[in-house]
Amino acid sequence: MTEALQAKPLRAGRLGLAFSAGLVFAAGLVLSGMTQPLKVLGFLDITAITKGPFPGLWDPTLAFVMGGAVCVTLLAFAWTQKLATAPLFANQYHEPAVNQIDMPLVGGAALFGAGWGLAGYCPGPALASALLSVDALIFTGAMLLGMLICKTFLSKRAKIAS
Questions:
Q1: Model's pTM, two decimal places?
Q2: Which one in 16, 70, 93, 99 has a CA-CA gap of 20 to 30 Å to 47?
Q3: CA distances from 142 to 72, 85, 115, 151 (A)
């Protein structure tokens, strides 16, 4: 069998796995309420604790969603390399090349937090909601435009530096 014929099922497997993972992720976002900006903003507004009996108007349910996601992720990272010597659809596991905190990471985190706090959307829920609401579609368009501007700026900056 030629390499081209072997590569097609491998590519199809990767795409199928990516699509399935995205579908499960989107379903989880919808079920947990993360696609509802008011629920997110209700969680981020910790001053709402003082409004009424505890927990007031503050919505702590997102903390449980995030806690569950962190637990699943920690287990997956801890067990993955112990259970399989190599990934199913790649030759090796890929780890990030940069493992330090730098200004692009801090700046990106600040922009992410500001966008999440102001709009109630982060990229995953915005994409999951983009076809369901106009505000999510606008947010997604603005996010993609911002990504394009950032990529263009960084590539021009790299050309100037070299």
A1: 0.71
A2: 70
A3: 31, 41, 11, 14
